Amino acid sequence: MPTSPKEQRFLASLQKDILEFFELNDYRSYSINQIHKAFAIRDRKTKELYADLVQKLVIENRLIRQSDGNYRFDNESFQIEGRVDHVNTRFAFVIPDDGSKDVWVATADLMNAKDGDRVRVQARRPSEKKKNDRPEGEVVEILERKSSEIVGVIQVTPHYSFLIPDSKKIYEDIYIPKTETLQANHLDKVIVEVTRWGTPGKKAEGRVIKILGKAGENETEMHSILAEFGLPYEFPEMVELAAEAISTEITKEEIKKRKDLRKILSFTIDPKDAKDFDDAISYQKLANGNTEIGVHIADVSHYVKPGSILDQEAFRRATSVYLVDRVVPMLPEKLSNGLCSLRPHEDKLTFSTLLEFDPNGLIVKEWFGRTLIHSDRRFAYEEAQVLIENQGEEIDAYEPVIKDLNRIAKKLRDYRFKHGSVNFETVEVKFELDENGTPLAVFPRERKDAHKLIEEFMLMANKKVAEYVHELKKTEPRNTMVYRVHEAPDPEKLRVFSAFAKKFGYQVSTEPKQVSQSFNALMENVEGKAEEHVLQSLAVRTMSKARYSTDAVGHFGLAFPFYSHFTSPIRRYPDVMTHRLLQLYLDKGASPERGPLEIQCKHCSDREKLAADAERASVKYKQVEYMSLHEPQIFDGIITGVTEFGIFVEIGETSCEGLVRMVDLNDDYYDLDKENYRIVGKSNGRVFSFGDAVKVKVRDTNLAKRTIDLELIGMKSGGDRFGNNRIRRREGRPANVIPRGKDRRNNIGRKRR
């Protein structure tokens, strides 16, 4: 066998040539002698080498050896690279890098790969006889581990310890020698570095590198969530020192480079507990009767220079992280809460979009550039909303301005929906916490006109910046830009959703040009009805995920052909990239290469997903903690999922989701009817369907796993213990479902654009 890297590369090249020969001639088979002739091989040793390489390709399932001894290309098998999504103890999916169909892999065939690892899979296309068109395969190589650090609870015994991982998708514990515990106490939360990955029949081994604290304490749990997702919770000392060294002075030379807007009325509208203000609105009536509205964004790129230590750390983080009780900022506090925060009564450096609106709310003029502003006032959303809703005598000098801004924002919103923007909003929950972080209350976050006012002007600024850069150069290749892109729904997902909506009597078009209008009509028709929540949730899941890219493929959800992120550079690195590119083009600079920026976009998209996962984990933890304090109470809920192991129920007043386990439904044996999103009792015909309104109480909570077990008390509609929700039997076959109990209306929160 070859030992040097050079020999290994040579043999890999030969094997590749052999495989390409078979692939080009996949319509026929060859004997070993025919292969030798095809490659003009005459000496015995080389013939033996080629025979060995052919046999290796058979073992790797790249070639098939037929009964007559000849070999042919395996058209059904292929290799892909992707990331492991280990959904349960029995199997995982590998999500291909190229966006092709997920590959099903049994846990036994993962080669001990863990969730999030990049792997190479030998896969096989499904036979035509199979209903499921998902390929199946096995991992043949682990290309990259997601992380060598794992967070969990340590269990200490007299002779050794082991880690129970926090992640629900890591199913094996990790052995820790007695000498490698850092003297952690039993049931402490710790971070363990894996020193040897597991092999068949042998556990992974590791060592404790950090003790986070006692499990169950708020500070410990929030830090463990950040660590679980590989997110930092403190800045390196050198980064803090670099931030502190930045001058707070705005020089006369800098003022001369900018448009001075300090005399124009400006203000911010933010959450009442906000600590950083990265956007402000200005308002002035023009002599021609039009209105100029400015969207002013903190000029982070003035302070954070490309390649600096601050820039490197901001890129590494790529986003701020918003946990239930804290913000983990992308930039140090001096920048995020100081220099770049548009606090009232302070001069601030900004990057601005000035939009001139005619009386009908149409934009007739636009301007982009660096500015200097002076915010006159800080509004909380609640304060602005009071002015919007006031119908009596004027109560504030700003009231006419706020109301006019709201009028224009509504016109922008109406125009958006008329031209294909999708009206989807997801539930966001808010917690009231005591001084120890214990949740006292949980409730859906309301979104009123004041929130929508700011959102519309931010959306318009993002859109106009993207359009401006795209149109600067009329021929291909266009100027490189960082876009926020959102593809149309996957046709197969759309077909499945359309079929499901049809069961409730609604038509959802699968025609590309009609999808957005069809979805908006559906959301309008289901408002206030029992099936509102289930159809809205499934519709959101049908949508693609927004991401960053240098390809201008448009934003389906907003119906914008060009859209960027310009308005939050304090908390999103892509916005910093957008500011730099916009200034480059305003200065008549040459367009940079697309490749390096596309890599940065991919990194930012990945970090955004990690941050969102951590945010959801912190919300789930607090929901479970809150429900653990209310176990005896009976709640109204709605079924949000059905599986072979139970029913998922979301509790209306808290938006907490828990599981009613199938084994606890002891009045009958229930079968999963996957096609119709329901389970059906074999003997009694009772039906529990996606969207049914039910009554539940908490059976058990597990803070470590962030799970809630529920007990089903009955159907919300009344009747017997489970209401009258049964299948009518006719000749032993299921008929239609009896109408369900009425659902509650949702208070809807804000969707991340």
From TrEMBL:
<dbReference type="InterPro" id="IPR001900">
    <property type="entry name" value="RNase_II/R"/>
</dbReference>
<dbReference type="InterPro" id="IPR040476">
    <property type="entry name" value="CSD2"/>
</dbReference>
<dbReference type="InterPro" id="IPR022966">
    <property type="entry name" value="RNase_II/R_CS"/>
</dbReference>
<dbReference type="InterPro" id="IPR050180">
    <property type="entry name" value="RNR_Ribonuclease"/>
</dbReference>
<protein>
    <recommendedName>
        <fullName>Ribonuclease R</fullName>
        <ecNumber>3.1.13.1</ecNumber>
    </recommendedName>
</protein>
<comment type="function">
    <text>3'-5' exoribonuclease that releases 5'-nucleoside monophosphates and is involved in maturation of structured RNAs.</text>
</comment>
<keyword id="KW-0540">Nuclease</keyword>
<dbReference type="InterPro" id="IPR012340">
    <property type="entry name" value="NA-bd_OB-fold"/>
</dbReference>
<comment type="similarity">
    <text>Belongs to the RNR ribonuclease family. RNase R subfamily.</text>
</comment>
<feature type="region of interest" description="Disordered">
    <location>
        <begin position="723"/>
        <end position="753"/>
    </location>
</feature>
<dbReference type="InterPro" id="IPR011805">
    <property type="entry name" value="RNase_R"/>
</dbReference>
<feature type="domain" description="S1 motif">
    <location>
        <begin position="632"/>
        <end position="713"/>
    </location>
</feature>
<dbReference type="Pfam" id="PF08206">
    <property type="entry name" value="OB_RNB"/>
</dbReference>
<keyword id="KW-0378">Hydrolase</keyword>
<keyword id="KW-0269">Exonuclease</keyword>
<dbReference type="Pfam" id="PF17876">
    <property type="entry name" value="CSD2"/>
</dbReference>
<dbReference type="Pfam" id="PF00773">
    <property type="entry name" value="RNB"/>
</dbReference>
<dbReference type="InterPro" id="IPR011129">
    <property type="entry name" value="CSD"/>
</dbReference>
<dbReference type="Pfam" id="PF00575">
    <property type="entry name" value="S1"/>
</dbReference>
<keyword id="KW-0694">RNA-binding</keyword>
<dbReference type="InterPro" id="IPR013223">
    <property type="entry name" value="RNase_B_OB_dom"/>
</dbReference>
<keyword id="KW-0963">Cytoplasm</keyword>
<dbReference type="InterPro" id="IPR003029">
    <property type="entry name" value="S1_domain"/>
</dbReference>
<dbReference type="InterPro" id="IPR004476">
    <property type="entry name" value="RNase_II/RNase_R"/>
</dbReference>
